[in-house]
Amino acid sequence: MQIDLHTHSSVSDGTSAPAELVRSAAGAGLDVIALTDHDTTAGWAEAAAAADAHGVVVAPGIEISTRHRGAGVHLLAYLPDPTSPLLVAELDRIVAGRELRVPAMLARLRDLGIPATEEALAEVSGAAVVTGRPHVADLLVRLGVVADRDAAFAGYLAEGGPAFVDRYAADLTAAIGLVGAAGGVPVLAHPWGRESRRVLDTPTLAELADAGLVGLEVDHLDHGPTERAELRRIAADLGLLVTGASDHHGTGKTGHDLGCETTAPEVWEALRQRARDNGSPLAPFGPG
Ligand code: AMP
Ligand code: ZN
Ligand code: FE
Ligand code: FE
Fold this sequence. Notes:
This protein has ten helices and eight strands.
């Protein structure tokens, strides 16, 4: 049983449409994936249809943009009720913040002499419901300014870079509460990746566990062997589940192939049980 609980489609900043992503998951021999686009459930319906067609179980999820003590933290939410009014309102607020930020980033780039227009961005972001810095990165690649997304972040878009513009994100502790109240299961994505490592120390993880956090995504390419061992120890101490996932973005993120990191079947079962216990109205899409 191969289970990959963190993937993105072109509804956010992945490069494959939800149905194509599910087809690729079947091709990669995966039994279960979670679709966890940034801040949106817009890809769920297409993924649900593809789950049946390709015989892959698809767990509906979201990767929510949050902040804790000034640092960006990504929170995975599995099986939350997508009609929960408080959750919907928070996601709408985050997406609105993203939409405000895009023109500001393009203006910064134009100030640098780069012809970055909204029209050109729309050509690269295509079907995306939620726009992000990776789309602006794709535009810089298209314009011949940089070779790839990584170079675009390094030169322009990373925090502190010349075209970086901050945006609204949910409070982390509040978001954990919202996900739980919506029947969902909150798991910290790549806790010791990029920005979040500087705020997610052991006492903080203990506080978040008290606030309703259920798991840590330990097996992620952002974590090396030492970090994984340490995070496993912390998870065991705090009674948190340990997950693993690719954080696949199609061709948008190299090395993150579908199924390159996986979650144990008993952990997947425990996550589903937590969703049932929380009163989630959802079951995973597809077979079984
Ligand atoms: P956004 O949510 O629009 O702020 O963009 C965040 C996305 O950009 C995430 O999916 C990250 O994978 C990606 N990202 C963030 N920082 C970097 C970086 N330094 N290099 C490459 N990708 C990055
Ligand atoms: Zn992403
Ligand atoms: Fe993330
Ligand atoms: Fe992600």
